[in-house]
Design brief:
single chain; alpha/beta; 266 residues; 7 helices; 7 strands; 7-stranded parallel beta sheet
Amino acid sequence: MLLKGKKALILGVANERSLAWGIAQQFKSEGAELAFTYVGDAIKKRLDPLAAEIGSNLVLPCDVSSDESIKNLFTEIKNKWGTFDILVHSVAFANKDELQGRFVNTTRDGFKLAMDISAYSLIGVAREALPLMNSGGSIITLSYLGATKVVQNYNMMGVAKAALEASVRYLAWDLGAQNIRVNAISAGPVKTLAAAGIKGFRSILDSVGQLSALKRNITNEDVGKSALYLASDLSSGVTGEIHFVDAGFNTGALRTPEAPSTENPT
């Protein structure tokens, strides 16, 4: 089993559709012991039965906008586990008003909030996690194509994801001397709770399903399998990378949907 004897802390499971939940399922199937975080009672109510389903009784509060809350989280992890091996950061937020219309209308407060929750939080949790992480450990975060390409209505979140990806590279160099790897998965669109806040998401999902190289959308299971690779020793020489899991959509340029062929292959 790829993760037998490993301990993984996962931030960002909101419900069973979450990319982080797909990651948790893959980790569990390969022997990892899991802990989860939540912010707010509503998330906790959904997370508790999922954690129980996967055999975890370690569900801890963490508001990544608070340094004190982050410190408290890792104090609890130290008390329960001592050390651990894998950190999954699947946390992002922007006000709904910043995810529609013209990007030029982004507000100062909206910019600060999105950057704090979606980008700075990776730095904050990595700093507190570092003293507890075993050599050979892995930090994984979640990004999206909007970090490098303009995606309609992704707006402020695209800028925050760009900052997140830059942070991955800088953290990889900082933490590499301690044999801790830092990578990101740039996932294709999936119907998650977070995606519901993006205006026109259904159209984005349909377009990627038609125009990706694999002619389909991805699933949280696809993301989980790639996270498993990045968390395990199979990727022992990989750090500072943005790994695309989007059915090949990012590799293309201008495309149009093609009508199904009526010819038999030869």
